[in-house]
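Quality-control log, excerpt.
Job 1 of 2 completed; input and output follow.
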Amino acid sequence: MGVIVAEGLAITVLVLTGFRQAVLNAIPMDLKRAIGIGIGLFIAFIGLVNAGVVIKGTPVVTIAPNFRTWPLLIFGVGLVVTSALVARRIKGALLLGIIFTTAFATIVNEAKHLKIFTDGSAKIPHSWPGPNFHLLGHFSFDF
């Protein structure tokens, strides 16, 4: 927690002195765009791995040999619906596509009793412990 507080204080000092804006102005626009594109491709790659389009654990990018699985069907339908919404320039198209794909995946999970997407489901634990306040007020820079 001390690192988070120190980071917040450092950012506050950088903003108040104007140094943050100077650093942002020093970075060329092409580099800013390249960073954004790289982050977007990384997130897209994670999505492709989770959908089963790309097989994880191989040193070379490998496309899944079997396209007859439910996760790939859900991915494909969600991609087509989201692309159609974006092409029609509907406001909130990405959010609507995410909501539709989530609802479709939930319906498939319940109808087929597949439970494919169990990693991201939130469940309330059986025993819910109360908050632990024993470190409240303790601040240290020790590493």
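Job 2 of 2 completed; input and output follow.
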Amino acid sequence: MSRGKANRELSVIMIALAAALLLLSGCGDGSYAPKFKDVNYYKGSDGLVMDFMNEQSLDEVYEGSSFAMSLFIENRGAHSIVGNDQAILTLGYDPFYVSASKEGAKENMLFGASSVVIKGLNLVGKSRYYPTGSKLFFHFPYLMAKNVTGQRSKPETQLFASLCYPYSTTLSQLVCIDFDIYDDNARNQACKQQDISLSDQGAPVAVTLVEVDNQPVGNGLVRPFFTIHIENVGGGTVLSPSDSGLEMEKACMIQELDKQDFNRLKIEAWLSNNIKLDCAPDEVRLTLDEGIVRCSVSGEDLNRALAWRQNYEAPLTVNLTYFYMNTLKKDMEIKRINQYGDLSSMENEGCFPYQIASGSGSEGKEGEENCINKCDYCAANPTDASCNPSTAAFQIQWNPDFGCKCSYKSCETLYPQGLCLPMANYCPPASYCCSDVCKSTEIRYEGDGNCYPKCSTCSVTKKKCACGTDESGYTILEEGQCCSKEKRPFTDEETCKVACEQETAAAAAAAAAARTTATSS
């Protein structure tokens, strides 16, 4: 064999060995595992968001023609709307100008006088497997522009879409349990207590600040306190706690809700993942989209929380739950084919069809930016002509308790009593303007028209209640006040208990005197 041929054969063998080694190194032990990039999905101020897909096509339509509403919906937050958690989409319109056909309707669609409600929407939130969250395209092609009355060539109306869903905000942050609050320990400490500023957590409601305070309780120990600042950062509306016992359909359609049910959310917090904190209040009301709650370690958990007896960092976990609603609106012109007709109806520009410009009425100036529901306006202005439609079969008994809180079924029952107005354009779609019917255990207070439960006697009230009798009248007590046995109101518990003891003694004396009189006779 020549030397050149031997060299060529050796080269071939070396190449084959290199290829075999490359294949073996690629196969490894057969347990290939993908590498994931470490991403924080709990960022951002959105939950579910939506936008019109055909916005330009809705700028103008011809009278008598059909048109569609198409929406793009996505979950940009970190919470998934799956299983029993479902979103509800409401398409609303002014029934004077627009109608909806039930042709092609599905089982999850409900049709009202001025709306179409679509239930059962599911969208997965951001995660390792859905880095941008899930998306949904919704198309409803069964809307029609009615023939226009009046003499306006291009009357304007509004379409709107509202998306309501249960959501949660989760914060997990290391905090310092600081025993050396007076800086009198010369040793190096593992951490120092400090407040934590935050922006968002992948949800429309965010924890924006945690004030950390370790208060001394004696024997060199401290009790951790956390003041938690909460803010609505999503641009929508917080309705009520999602685990408050309210049915989701009622909450999202604003049916049979009291005003105190709005702008509320539930908070739970834990330290070190297994020590549940006492939070007061555990249901937070947002005022101007902001709220504050204080959470602390309970007395029974102090030993577990302070077992180290020296500075250490522990995870603080905060969970907020709530129903949330986003709303879109779209101005639309209706081009008429017949240029002649009846006089047009009164306009209400700048507001939704069910709203009225604040400060205006049947004779007021429309077009102001501040809009309120017509139902709320009529509750405060019951004599206004627009609040007493001539087509109503029953006289409406307006009082300050009226609000957009009834389903149509409830409204049918209340209408003959004058406690509900079963007409569109006073409330958002799928809700009707009505007053509460007081329960048998409640009275209607003439001062504000609201229903209040009767107070228990000789104990501190836990919520507003009515103290008194039908004969003597009632006084509304605030939380923390007291009502005596004889239905007398007191502002403090101690005075009330003294009065209760005196009333009990007087009643016993009167009963004894009555028995003595009966025995003598």
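Post-run check on job 2. The longest strand covers residues 312-335.
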